[in-house]
Design a protein that fits this description.
By secondary structure, the protein is mainly alpha-helical. The protein has two helices and no strands. The longest helix has 33 residues. InterPro entries: TAP46-like.
Length: 72
């Protein structure tokens, strides 16, 4: 089964993702605005996750934690 076949099967079953659902009477501008908002939300989530991971890493690795060999 190819990806296209799978999507076609899902469409026939009436199962579609939120991005594929189009409200009745929606214009292209509204769809673009909606798509941009979802992309911004995803970017914000990724940035927040990255910032939290970095903060956790800094908690477990204090300043000067690195290679301490040959320091005299």
């Amino acid at each position: 089964m190819t990806v296209d076949d799978w999507y076609e099967q899902r469409r026939k079953q009436g199962i579609a993702s939120a991005a594929q659902r189009v409200p009745a009477g929606a214009s292209d501008e509204e769809l673009q605005k909606q798509q941009q908002e979802t992309e911004e939300e995803e970017d914000n989530e990724k940035a927040l996750r990255k910032a939290r991971d970095w903060d956790d890493w800094k908690d477990t690795h204090p300043h000067g934690y690195g290679n301490r060999h040959n320091m005299g």
